[in-house]
Amino acid sequence: MKLSFSAEDEAFREELIAFIEANCPAAGYSSGDFIGTEVSDGDGIMVIPDWAREWQAALFDNGWMIPAYGPELGGRNATPTQTLIYLEELASRGIPRSVHFVGYAIAGPSLLEFGNPDQRALAPAAIRGDTVWCAGMSEPGAGSDLANISTRAVDEGDHFKVNGQKVWTSYAMLASKCLCYVRTDPDVPKHRGISALIIDMDTPGIEVRPLRHITGQAEFAEVFFTDVLVPKRNLVGEQGDGWRITMGALAHERGGLWVEGVAGCQRSIDDILTMIKSRGRDQDKVVRRRVAELYSQVRGLRALGYKGFASFAQGTSAPEHSFMKVATSELHQTLIELAMDLQGAGLAVTDRAVAESKGRWQQSFFTGLAATIGGGTSEVQRNVIAQRVLGLPRGR
Ligand SMILES: Cc1cc2nc3c(=O)[nH]c(=O)nc-3n(C[C@H](O)[C@H](O)[C@H](O)COP(=O)(O)OP(=O)(O)OC[C@H]3O[C@@H](n4cnc5c(N)ncnc54)[C@H](O)[C@@H]3O)c2cc1C
Fold this sequence. Notes:
The chain has helices at 7-23, 31-34, 50-61, 80-92, 102-114, 117-120, 123-128, 242-254, 257-278, 285-313, 320-342, 360-370, 378-389, and strands at 133-136, 152-155, 159-170, 177-183, 194-200, 206-212, 218-231, 235-236. With 396 residues, the chain is an alpha+beta fold.
């Protein structure tokens, strides 16, 4: 087993760190910290500040947005190992690439994989953040069971007429385009009747109603479609091929997520260590044991992530990665709960001016709840592990 990086990879790391140090306006934050602070207006509705637009554009223009892509797509043809280094360096510093992930993580890669030449031409602006995208998958009756979507698109010759509702649509209030999954054929088995459409959000008949998080801030929305006319040229892939595209889109969303999950846990344990020292709790046996247990879990998950990455880089499947989303999101919630406990009555203080660590833990306590839901709930991930990794029969 080789546990070190090559000289070339270390040079890549150095160049990245130099770029971050010279250009990054956002070190020391996580994207969760941004929600409700720098990226919402006085009413709590999400906005994209100028510095975030400029940072994302600078990453793209210098080949640091998606390093594995070529320069025309904001990358530098980096190897998988270099991508791992990149993700770790950003995540361990709490630096987001963007405050809205759908364009670079879902829409852009999906258009490149499944779109026609005109649609692929939309990808650079999506990845650079010049065009803000949202992803219309979930509906009131279709979340974990995504194939159940009922938003209907009726084929009317040169266009589709769309009626229905999406929910939990991140950034819908800011987006100019939606990669939207609709039912084009209700008479075939449900996985086969779904299609993917690019819908311009300023098309007549679309209503966006922001939904507030438990923090009071609105980062996602309900989206209602009433007789929305969408040109046929906006169909991505073949009609009825939407299920395959959703699976591709979710894989794009999840790839590399484990690195950010592990790095987030590592940052939290580091911050907890600082907190117990500053509060004089570092001689408390119960606290010491608890922190040591959680530290060993974080390190164990990192090792597991690396093992999966090594298999993946060699072209074999990495079942370890099925565990990583569940494990890192749940471990992070436990870490945040410990940090809240350590504050005693101070845990109820949400005013950033006086709260411990500027309210980082209170904010994370709320936003961390979403981590075991978005992108596939923990329960559903466990079903996947049971069936695909452990080979157990489908539950009834
Ligand atoms: C912060 C955030 C951002 C999001 N952004 C977007 C977005 O941009 N676009 C988008 O389309 N969606 C988005 N979502 C929605 C997300 O994909 C769904 O919330 C998720 O897929 C779960 O679906 P649901 O909320 O309908 O819950 P449901 O599927 O109704 O699940 C309810 C409960 O039942 C459990 N459950 C369901 N099925 C099973 C099963 N088979 N076995 C055991 N337990 C089960 C679930 O685990 C959960 O606890 C976002 C969610 C969050 C939290």
